[in-house]
Each structure stands twice: as C-alpha cells, then as structure tokens.
Amino acid sequence: MATNARQGSLDVALAHGERLVQVDPNLALAQIEQILLVVPGHPQALLLAGRAHRLAGRPGQAHALLAPLARAQPRSAATAFELGLSCRALGKSEAAVAALRNAVELDPGQPEPWQALAEELHLAGDEAGGDEAQLAGIHASVGDPDLMKAALAISENRLAPAEAFLRGRLKRRPTDVPAIRMLAEIAGRLGRNRDAETLLTRALELAPSFAPARFNLATALYRQFRAAEATAQVDILLAGDPANPAFRNLKGAALARNGDYAEAAEEFRAVLEARPDQPRVWLNYGHVLKTLGRRDDCVAAYRHAIALSAVLGEAWWSLANLKTVRFTPDDIAAMNTGLERDDLGDDDRFHLEFALGKALEDARRYETSFAHYAEGNRLRRAAFPYDPAQTTALAARSRETFTADFFNSRGGWGAPDRDPIFVLGMPRAGSTLIEQILASHADVEGTQELPDIQAIARRLGTERSGGSHLAGLGELDRDAVAMLGREYLDRTRPQRKSGRPLFIDKMPNNWAHVGLIHLILPNATIIDARRHPLACGFSNFKQHFARGQAFSYDLADIGRFYADYVNAMAYIDAVLPGRVHRVLHEDMVANSEVEIRRLLEAVGLPFDSACLRFWDNDRAVQTASAEQVRRPISDEGTDAWQNYSQWLDPLRASLGPALHDWRGSWPTVAAMQHKVD
Predict the structure, then answer these.
(1) How many CA atoms lie within 13 A of 3 on its CB side?
(2) How far apart are CA 402 and CA 405, in angstroms?
(3) pLDDT at 435 over 70
(4) Each residue of 345-402: pLDDT tens digit?
C-alpha cells in the first residue's frame, strides 16, 4: 500500500512539474529537483529537468543531463527530441539533426520533432529534406491514412497520382488544410510557385497559425522575386518565434534580394552568433558582404564555410568568383581531393570544377584549366538543357512584330516616365562597369539585375495564345500599353532606396525585349553593353551563373546566342535609328573619359566628375564583376581568351558573321531584312 501511495505521489509531482515547466521553468526545476532527491536518476524527472534548463535559457546544462539519459534510454523518442532541441540551442547542427532523426524514427507520429527537423534542415540548406520533414509533420498531426499514402507518393516523386488524389479530396473537403498544404508542396516542386502561393494563402485563411504553411508561402514569394512580401510573411513567423534561425536565415535572403544588404548582413550575423556551425549561412553572409564591398570580411566568411565543410563547392567558387583571390597550392590540392570523393554531389562537383578552372588559369596551367572549365560546363549543361532554336525563334518573331509601322502607329504610347536606364546585352560584356559609372552620378541610382521586364513578358505570354507575349501586343490599346509601363515602375519601386530621379535596370537578357521596353517606356534610356565575341564568349564559358543563363554552358550555344543578340540589336537599330546607345567595352577601356562623357550625354545628364572616379563609389554591387568595378579601369583580362584560343573553334564556328561584324551600326531596314532573311 505504501509503495502504491508513494508512486501515486510521484506521479502527481511529475504531472505538476510537466504543467509548470511551460509556465515557469525555474520554478518547475525546483519541483523536479525535489523529486530527484527522493528518486535519484528517475528518467522522467531528468527529462523534465533537461527541458526546464533549455526553456530557461541554459542549453548547456540541459545537454549535460540529456546526453547520458539518451544513452541510457536509446528507445525514448521524447528524450531524443529534447536532446535534439538542446543541441540546436547550442548550435550543434549535426548532433541536432541526428537526435531529431532518431526521435522521428522512434515515434514518427509526433509532429513537433518533424517540424524541428524541418527547420534544422532548411537552415543547413537542405530544402528538399526540410520540405519532406515538414510534410511528414503535417501527416503526423492528422494521422489520416489516405494523406499518408499521398505523402509517400510525393516523397517518392510520384507527383501526378498524388496531385490527382489531393484535387479529388479537396473537391469533397475544400477546407482540408493539410491536403491544401500538400498540393502546394507539389506545385512548388514543379516550379509552379504562383499556384503554390494561392494554395498556401488559402491554407492560412483557414488556419492562420499554421507556421509551416506560412514558411512555405514566404519561400514561394521569395522564389518569385517578391522579396518584400516574403519578408512580411517571415516577420509574422518571427513575432511568434523570434530566435528561430531558419526564419531569420530566410529573412536575410529576402532582404538581400530586395536590395537591403546591410539589414540582410545583420540577420545572417545574428543567425551565426547562435549557430556558428552552419556553412551555408556563412556562405550567404559572405555573398552579402561581397555586395557591400567588405572584401576581407567576405573572404573570411567564405573561408569559414570551407573550414566547416571542405567540399562545399559553392564556397570555393565564390572565392574564385571574386576574381581577386589567388588560391594556394594547398587550396588546389584540397579541391582536387574533394573531386576524388565518390559521395560528392553534383552541385558541389561542378562548383569545384569551375573554381579549379579559375585557380589553374591564375597559375597559367591553361590546358588543365580548360579541362576543368569544360567539365563544369558539361555537368551544368546536363542539368539545364538549353534549346538555342528557341532563342533564334524569339528573335525572329520579334522582328515580325516590331516593325517600323508598328512603332510609328504607336508613337507617344506607354508610360512617359524617363526614370529607367536599361543596361543590357551579353553577360560579361562590361555592363557592371557601365552601371557603376552611371550610379556615381548624383541623379542616378544603381539597383541590380531586375527580373521585372521578363516577368511582365511571361505574364503576358500566359494570357495570350501560343504562350508568347508577342502574340497579342498588337491588340493592346493606348491605355493598356501605358498600364504595362506603370506596372514596371510599380514593380521596381521597392528597389529604389535613394530618391534619385533615375535608376538602372542591369538585366543583360533584356536585349530580347527591347521592342517591349520601347513600347511601354518610350522615354527610358537603353544602353547596349558590347564586347569582342571571343572575349565575351569565353568569359561566359568560364563563369558559373547562379541562374538564368542556360546558354552559357556550351561554346557553340554561346556563339549562336551572341549572334542572335547582335542580329536582334541590329534590327532595332534599323527600325529605331539612334534609340539604343552602344558602349563597346574595348573603347571604354582605351578611352574612358571620352566614352563616359558620351554615355552621360546619351542618358541626358550633365557631366559629373564623380563618374570618372567610379571606383570610389561604395554602393552595393551584386554581380560577378563587383570587385573589378571597385578599382580603376584596366585592360587586365581583356585578352585572357587568347590563352585558350586553340580550344575555341566551336565558338568561332557558331558565331558566323558576328565573329567579325560585331561592333554594330545603324543599317537600313531593307538591308537588315536582307541580312536576316
């Protein structure tokens, strides 16, 4: 009887401690310590003590209790979960992931460990793993066997049957939040971020406190380059969980995308203070520091990422991409060792190949350097197939649409604002230099490569037959065209921080949309940045782009893309003589002041001597040329392609006439039609 009474009293005390730990962990700890005086080593009391220490902000003491308890009770999911949380609070990412994985394996029916695991994986840059863990947590919260089957299909990438089932379920149960969230997961995996956004918004209307859905909504908005909206969603999450590193990491990325680099740096720094073991956060931090011009801090951040993960290829490439870092023999040996690993992922592998190409180029080992560049490009080309015929067809259809009569009959249409300065052309043709020169003028703000013209074109394409934005342009009336111009100005307004009257949009690929730009913004300035085709072509080949330049991974594709660009701009010169101001990079290097004065005249700006000392401008620069434009103009690297000349025949062949006739002029329409026909 006495034993039963004692056990009953112990159960009551433990239950009281369980209730109290969420309200006042220090008071709960006092209660638990009394229990441990009576029953030393009691597992449940030790678990509660560890939780109380963690909630009171003492994760080290929590871990000291929980680590031996987990070894003594290897089948306890609750202990593994609490150990994972204490490891996470201590910044021990690998240990946290291991403990949390153990917790969900021991008891997959509890949603909280899945959610904690998802957040930890997202923070580590494992988006796919994080999404799967998040999805598993949703299933655990509902326990529906049909949803479990759909989840299994998604995890096995059988998306079509899972989507069909979920759509059928939502017809019967339109307010089924977990099913809505799962359907959004499928949309996200298929790249249909707009559909994912719609579904997640509906899920949050039904369940506003559903944090995983809000995190996914913020991610979908971020992927659509709607960074300010993504930040607003993350702020809602942070209001409930202000120290959550996954939330703060996403906020840092969104702030950087929105051009708020100093704030982004603070977010990443705060994450790293709590979680210094995260190589990918160090990498993101380094990217922002590079943009801010904090070169030494940037290099240190990239080096820190490599110290934590020696085969993090993107960190090695990021160092190489500074163009000013010279790798040591030990660095080259470390990268070669990384490439020899059988377990190296494709992402790390191609980044290492590009980085080694640059390291060996600097060491003047050109043949081996080219082999690494070629292998990196081969891997990227396999992952991102590119059809050059589509670019050629778009250029041809643009010529058919944007005739001289088309423009003459629409003179004065569009938004009248002259605010935008479009700097376009081939990547690696000197556009960042032009941007830096113009942004040094008192009336001009530099932003970044803005996706908004392309986004407008894509949206028009989805609304028109044939999927091309060109198909219905002729049907738009004057008001509709002006509305498109105002849409562009509204979309880009968040990027404008300084209040200066003019701003730069430096998206190179906008060369394919010059006709659309002139139609909707007839008073905007258009500048074509051009460079020798072999210098420009090879510079693209050895540059790994984060996104959007799928043509650049094959020498023949690069040549054809360059030729399409030159022909497209020649046609614009023919139908709109003098509309585009062309800057040849070689002329800018050889006669800087003359070209800078011509450039300012083309924009309609008075001369500003600050433009001659553009390298003193400490503005944020995001592109691969960030380090070069913080130094005076030099001809360094202008002829670097000649060291690789013997391997560039595919580029020469695909350039065709553009190999020699690349400088551009203003041909007559008839001559241009004869040339393209």
Answers:
(1) 0
(2) 8
(3) yes
(4) 999 999 999 999 999 999 999 999 999 999 999 999 998 889 999 999 999 999 999 9
Which DSSP helix (H) or strand (E) runs through 505?
strand 502-505
Tell me the CB-side half-sphere exposure of residue 352, using CA atoms within 13 A: 23
Cα(187)–Cα(199) distance, rounded to whole angstroms? 9
Q: How far apart are CA 315 and CA 287, in angstroms?
A: 10
Tell which residue, 668, 605, 576, has the closest CA to residue 445: 605
Strand partners, 525: 421
User: Is the confidence at residue 415, as pLDDT, over 70?
Assistant: yes
Enumerate the β-bridge partners of residue 122.
Answer: none
- CA 165/CA 176 separation, integer angstroms: 13
Longest Cα–Cα distance in the chain: 108
The 3-state secondary structure of 428-464, one letter per residue: CCCHHHHHHHHHCCCCEEEEECCCHHHHHHHHHHHHC
- Number of Cβ within a 10 Å radius of residue 329: 9
Assigned token pair, 236: 């809602």
pLDDT digit string (tens) for 190-216?
889 899 999 999 999 988 888 889 999
Nearest to 599 by CA among 667, 529, 548: 529
Q: Is 667 helix (H, G, I), strand (E, B) or coil?
A: coil
List the one residue out of 557, 574, 453, 555 whose CA is nearest residue 510.
Answer: 453
Q: Which residues pair with 583 in a beta bridge?
A: 529
Residue with tokens 């929105």: 258
